[in-house]
Amino acid sequence: MDIYLKLVAGGRGVPPEVVHELQERYAQIGLGDERWAESPHLTRWTLRQAALLEGRLGKTVYVGMRNWEPFIGKVVEGMKRDGIRRARAICLAP
Q1: Model pTM?
Q2: 43 and 31 in one domain?
Q3: C-alpha dist (Å) from residue 70 to 37, 73, 78
Q4: Which contacts of 72-75 are long-range, i.e. CB under 8 A and separated by 24 or more positions?
């Protein structure tokens, strides 16, 4: 959560009550303070959904995150390299 909060807050300090509120919100969707060997649950779920959608559509589905890897900017760079000129986006927030 610390790394995430630094990214969200642009490196500024975050008041303890805000940290607590975010911890509560994320706990409600199954995310806690534990460290993972792989990406966080929400990221894994999102990537899994993208894979399932890709299978249904038969087209490449890209996933970019604002404050966690894979970051949107890097994904868009990859899309450009892949020759993507138009895209449809679904913006999600927990």
Answers
A1: 0.65
A2: no
A3: 16, 9, 11
A4: none
